[in-house]
Amino acid sequence: MQPFTALDGALLVDKPGEWTSHDVVAKLRNHFRLEKVGHCGTLDPMATGLLILVLGKATRMSERFMASDKVYEGTMRLGETTDSYDADGEILETKLIPLMTLEDLNEAAEEFRGDIQQIPPMVSAKKIGGVPLYKMARQGKEVVREPRLIHVYTYRFHEYEEPFAYFRVSCTKGTYVRSLAHDLGQKLGCGAHLTALRRTGSGRFDVADAIPLAELLKMDRKALEAQVIPLLKLRGYE
Length: 238
Hints:
The protein is of the alpha+beta class and 238 residues long. It folds into two domains: 9-67 and 203-237, Pseudouridine synthase (2-Layer Sandwich), CATH 3.30.2350.10; 70-201, Pseudouridine synthase. Helix content is 24%, strand content 34%. It has eight helices and 15 strands. The chain is globular, with a radius of gyration of 19 Å. The chain starts with 8 loop residues before the first strand and ends with a helix.
């Protein structure tokens, strides 16, 4: 068995907006000439924040970290519904926003706490019959999606300035936060979509310990090694 190297471990990246998770993996792999790199949980291109990369022999641990609970902070816009449930989509409907308070929002959000059955949005990477839903959506198709069980631990709003509402969510893996925004908008009767999302936590990892992608790309290979959490230490994060 070959010994571990300084590049067998996890790298915490603060993903910028407009980049896909795959883009980040590909960029770092090519930039530093890494042989094996994977990520532990996809972020939509619009989303920013914590993206856990596993390097070298640590790639075998990706499924374990992917299964961790997640924490997000986000913003939604009330009064507008989009086809993707976020600001990257086309506006389908605009409605007047009823008079409401922060307390009203939190009361409505309570219904989305606990175990819920969530239907994946059509504009998503989930595959049906081997084809990603977003590819079908681009062709104007809509297919039946089976709901899946998720758990929302907390869903709280801390600020509301019409039409924007600011919230924090902690949930199990596989939760579509933009679906939570869309579904809450439907419950309120005015529609809503996600305008900003940032992942701040995944399991025991925190975005405060992540390095912005732009800073990583300024480093040489030796400096990168110093940012890697060694494989032997990773078991403490499971």
